[in-house]
Design goal:
23 helices, alpha+beta, elongated, 7-stranded mixed β-sheet, 761 residues
Length: 761
């Protein structure tokens, strides 16, 4: 017996194929005994024997002729009914907005009749009412509540499909819904692969999760199985040994993606020779999933050889190096995401970053084919701190990236009042060439604006020099004394020249510089000529006409490159997020550090001042007037002017911290030497430098991004990876030489602690 409902209102039904689907649907959606989601129900009957009537027939014999007649005769229903029910016919309920619903007796021989199993639960004599309640988008027929032997009621709603006038399902009346839902709520959903416990009625979030659990179980218990049948709704696996009875049967729950184990035979009787040395389930994907947690974060040194050893120790399985490498790549890919997707998500990330951090400047440049070309980022908190409290000396440098599409990371950084690295801006480009350096420095100029007394320090890269002169025409460009010294080592092979150059570059007095440089010229005139061609005012502190302070090298940028060593392996989006996260940590830590300082100057500046104060204890002061004096020590004199904050030794002038002569003068005139220090070295300025907050972008799923930003296409750049093993270590500068590592375990040179094989007595 079937009922097919026809209506004029179009709906979109959800098909449920069997009793388990219907029960699961009701269990998920039933709230307080009501179904907010309409459900299509098919009535099935069961005939056990010729002499026994089914519950369905008993029920309808008692109620169809009496109760439904009463319902159909109501004025509100206006229905024409058929008093005879035939097993080979279908009673059709037609809903008409004007004339009301009516029954039509139609024959549908093609319908398959299923048995209705009520589990021998008796239905009490309650009203079985049918009401039609039109809604805005679907017609719902409500079958009144019925009661089972357990005295628990459930309200069932029937959805009427009107796309073609027929319901394309085999509906089932469900009893004992409340008990079924309670049993489901008590059965937790299994997740994770660490536990190899398996039992019937376990529920898994997906078929893939169940398969993963089975694979890991096979590895741990050292057996193999084969998949007998795998469909979207069924998974059947059994032991690879045909004589073994171990097997698992799981089915999909309703319209969800969850799978439940229905049958599980847990006893293994496998023959030992069926087990192989390399388990067939030990795929690179499964191993990658099992070691995924090891690669959380950055900087993990879990190499393929380590994976091979770990899998052999943990599971007794020997895997190849290639499989371990693929497992590592899969694990990293599942954590970091696709490099291609990373480029495409970058515009949305930059938009959210600017919204979360006011004052932040980002820019993405693509070519005519929408392929990535340049990227620039400067956090608003860094820019605000630079304008108020940071010395205007900017060091710039570039370092190579190691991800799939390579590239170069451009960095601009300064030093704060505590002599710490203060990142200012970052950029990404194809390589260190004229176009990329000019673009990066132009974006940096736009972000900073005009800065008085700006001093830019870099290595002697020709592209940087051209770009600085073009973009910052009023700024002074100095070169890194470390790189110049390394070049001297390479070109002239004389350690004495390198030492004399270092002393001359760091000399404060011009007379002292001339004396040292004269000695260098006598030793090797070619080296002196090489240094003169660079420009003495670009590397010698004594000839510097601008405020260089004590910053003579680009070591702050080189140090930042070392900090980002592992981050340079990441895809572009994760790299940018790691840069932002690094700044967030530094700002919070250094703000707390500044708040804990009790001195007027920062810890570094206070230490410098104290060391010079101790030196000045034996200096003799000869006053000239109320602000000027002559200071003598060991036959060397220096004239100090406290009003102009200058000294003829030039240390006071260049470092902007009182020299020992000036401190002796302050003590003589009873003046606090703290008042003569530059404002950049005060604790107040340090706190102001890190007063801003850097906020994270949050989860990508929560981003609110305009369509024109979200729809922007950014493809990976046009790069071609060179042949051979990818380069992970930078190319040493000229004259830098190769460092010899020393083992911290045995104290010998040539290896480190990790590769040490020497026995310890």
């Amino acid at each position: 017996m079937k009922y097919v409902f026809n209506a004029n209102i179009p709906t979109s039904p959800i098909q449920l194929t069997d009793d388990g689907d219907v029960k699961f649907f009701i269990g998920l959606n039933c709230t307080n005994g009501k179904l907010p989601v309409p459900l299509c129900i098919t009535v099935e009957k069961r005939i056990d024997n010729h002499n026994q009537k089914s519950i369905f027939n008993s029920y309808f014999e008692c109620h169809m002729s009496s109760e439904i007649d009463k319902e159909l005769n109501e004025d509100s229903m206006l229905m024409h009914k058929s008093r005879h029910i035939h097993c080979d016919s279908v009673e059709t309920l037609t809903v008409d907005g004007e004339n009301g619903p009516r029954f039509q007796n139609e024959s549908h021989e093609g319908y398959k009749v299923h048995d209705w199993n009520m589990n021998e639960t008796a239905i009490n004599e309650e009203d079985y009412r049918m009401n039609t309640n039109p809604t805005s988008d679907k017609q719902v027929t409500q079958i009144g509540s019925f009661r089972t032997g357990s005295a628990q009621s459930a309200e069932i709603l029937t959805m009427i499909d009107t796309s073609d006038g027929f319901i394309h399902d085999n509906p089932t009346i469900i009893e004992d819904v409340a008990n079924e839902r309670q049993n489901m709520m008590q059965q937790p959903i299994v997740s994770g692969i660490s536990d190899d416990h398996l039992e019937e009625h376990q529920i898994y979030s997906s078929k893939k999760e169940l398969q993963r659990k089975l694979y890991m179980m096979a590895l741990k218990r050292k057996f193999e199985f084969k998949t007998t049948k795998s469909t979207t709704k069924l998974l059947l696996v059994e032991c690879f040994d045909k004589e073994c009875k171990w097997r698992v049967r799981a089915t999909k729950l309703g319209i969800s993606n969850m799978f439940q184990i229905m049958k599980f035979y847990s006893t293994h009787t496998c023959r030992l020779y069926m087990m192989s040395r390399d388990n067939r389930h030990a795929s690179s994907w499964l191993i990658g999933e099992s070691i995924r947690e090891t690669y959380q974060g950055i900087g993990c040194e879990f190499r393929p050889n380590d994976i091979v050893a770990d899998i052999r120790k943990q599971y007794g399985i020997q895997i190849s190096y290639d499989k371990a490498w693929r497992a590592k790549e899969l694990a990293l890919g599942s954590i970091r995401g696709s490099p291609e997707e990373s480029y495409n998500t970058l515009p949305s990330y930059c938009y959210v970053l600017e919204q979360k951090n006011p004052g932040t400047i980002t820019d993405i440049v693509t070519d005519c084919d929408n392929q990535f070309k340049y990227f620039f980022m400067s956090i608003g908190a860094s820019l605000a701190g630079f304008h108020t409290s940071i010395r205007p000396v900017v060091a710039v440098d570039g370092t190579f990236l190691k991800a799939k599409y390579l590239g170069t990371l451009f960095i601009a950084a300064c030093k704060d009042g505590n002599n710490q690295i203060y990142p200012l801006a970052f950029g990404i480009g194809d390589s260190e060439n004229d176009a990329s350096w000019e673009w990066f420095l132009q974006k940096l100029h736009d972000a900073l604006g005009h800065i008085d007394d700006l001093f830019v320090i870099s290595d002697r890269h020709g592209s940087i020099e051209k770009a600085v002169h073009k973009v910052f025409p009023h700024a002074r460009h100095g070169v890194c004394t470390y790189h110049v010294g390394q070049n001297l080592k390479t070109k002239f092979k004389n350690p004495a020249i390198h030492k004399l150059f270092h002393d001359a570059a760091h000399a404060y007095r011009v007379s002292e510089f001339n004396f040292i440089f004269g000695q260098l010229e006598m030793i090797d005139p070619r080296a002196a000529r090489y240094l003169m061609d660079i420009g003495v005012d670009r590397w010698a502190r004594s000839y510097s006409t601008e405020k260089r302070y004590n910053i003579m090298t680009t070591r702050i940028v080189e140090s930042l490159n070392a900090v980002l060593k592992n981050a340079r392996d990441l895809p572009v989006l994760q790299l940018v997020e790691e840069l932002r996260n690094l700044l967030q940590k530094w700002f919070v830590t250094r703000q707390q550090q500044a708040m804990s300082m009790s001195t007027e100057l920062t810890m570094w500046a206070d230490g410098e001042l104290r060391s010079r104060y101790n030196m000045s204890a034996t200096y003799l002061v000869e006053p000239i007037n109320s602000k000027e004096c002559n200071v003598n020590y060991a036959g060397i004199s220096a004239q100090v002017n406290l009003d102009t904050r200058s000294c003829t030794c030039r240390q006071f002038d260049l470092d902007h911290i009182p020299c020992a002569h000036a401190i002796a003068a302050c003590r003589f005139y009873n003046i606090s030497c703290y008042t003569l220090c530059s404002k950049h070295f005060t604790t107040k300025a340090l706190l102001s430098s890190y007063s801003g907050c850097i906020y994270p972008t949050g989860n990508e799923i929560d981003w609110v991004v305009p369509n024109h930003i979200r729809d922007k296409v950014v493809l990976p750049p046009k790069t071609r990876r060179p042949t051979g093993r990818p380069r992970k270590v930078r190319i040493p500068s000229g004259g830098e030489g190769k460092r010899t590592s020393r083992c911290s375990r045995c104290g010998q040179y040539g290896h480190n602690r990790k590769t040490c094989k020497r026995p310890i007595p």
